[in-house]
Amino acid sequence: MILPIIAYGDPVLRKVGEEIDQDYPKLNELIENMWETMYHANGVGLAAPQIGLPIRLFLVDASPFAEDEDLPEAERKQLEDFKQVFINAEILEENGDPWAFNEGCLSIPEVREDVQRNEKITIRYMDENFKQYEETYDGLLARVIQHEYDHIEGILFTDKLSSLKKRLLKGKLSNISKGKVNVDYRMRFPELKKAR
Asked: What residues does Fe cation bind to (predicted)?
């Protein structure tokens, strides 16, 4: 089932997610719905807060980036095969030189900005079967994971912009929260919810 994506301005996007366990109600169904929602919106990642649930769950399918011919072959191969559910994730380490990349977010449509992130992360997480992993990722894969991880920490990519950029985007962000945006996927807008 395709779920509405929560728009910028909703308080759920600012909550630090709660850990979950295997008894979380209808978890497999939730994960399936999140994959379907993400693919419908042409995303490469989706976090539970983006569908209104303040829990530590996100998923990533980095395969669309594998088509970028400018990337080294080894990185393209890594991206092409990467589809993963992350439950109760914790970034243990971030290192390497920060680098800029143009990011967007399904909760903040029509806004794309260069964001600085560290090139390498080590993360501990569980998959959908609650098997625990500790992995190190770099490059674009590390970036996508960091972006989704920020969501379960109540952080948006716009928080990482300079104060000048934030001021320039203020009107656009306000319009998004009011539903004044043109998207081809379902969204839920905080300002419209209040008006009812």
From this structure: 105, 147, 151
How big is the chain by its Cα radius of gyration, in Å? 16
| 148 is a catalytic site residue | yes
Cβ neighbour number for residue 101 with a 10 Å cutoff? 14
Three-class SS state of 35: helix
Say if residue 40 carries a ligand binding annotation: no
pLDDT tens profile 91-138: 999 999 999 999 999 999 999 999 999 999 999 999 999 999 999 999
Q: Are strands 108-117 and 120-126 parallel, antiparallel or unpaired?
A: unpaired
Strands (E), 56-98: 57-61, 83-95
Q: Which pLDDT tens digit goes with each residue over 19-64? A: 999 999 999 999 999 999 999 999 999 999 999 999 999 999 998 8
Residue 188 is given by DSSP the state E
For the question of whether the overall pTM of this predicted structure is more than 0.90, the answer is yes
Q: Is 151 annotated as a binding residue?
A: yes
* Domains within the chain, CATH numbers bracketed: 5-184 (3.90.45.10)
How far apart CA 42 and CA 44 sit, in angstroms, is 7
Any binding-site annotation on 147?
A: yes
